[in-house]
Design a protein that fits this description.
85 residues, flat, 79% helix
């Protein structure tokens, strides 16, 4: 039905955006100043993304339904896309 179509379209759009952002990242990573800054900030971004995901998940499990509406950062999907790209 319509709900399944919306979920399918959202999943396809998410994949499209992820693959395009990896391509843009690869182009920008060839620029030396960007590469240096990325090497310093990327580990922190991954750490804080994991912490955010854990926080949202734990608050949702505790019964705070407001947190169930917050999106999780798809760390595994991003890593998979970078390996493919």
């Amino acid at each position: 039905g319509p709900s399944a179509a919306v979920h399918y379209a959202a999943a396809e759009y998410k994949h499209f955006c992820l693959s395009r952002s990896v391509r843009v990242w690869n182009v920008l990573d060839q620029i030396t100043p960007f590469h240096v800054v990325a090497e310093m900030t990327l580990p922190h971004a991954v750490y804080f993304s994991e912490r955010y995901n854990l926080f949202v998940t734990s608050m949702t499990r505790k019964g705070y339904t407001v947190f169930s509406y917050l999106p999780l950062v798809p760390i595994d999907e991003i890593a998979k896309e970078f390996k493919q790209g």
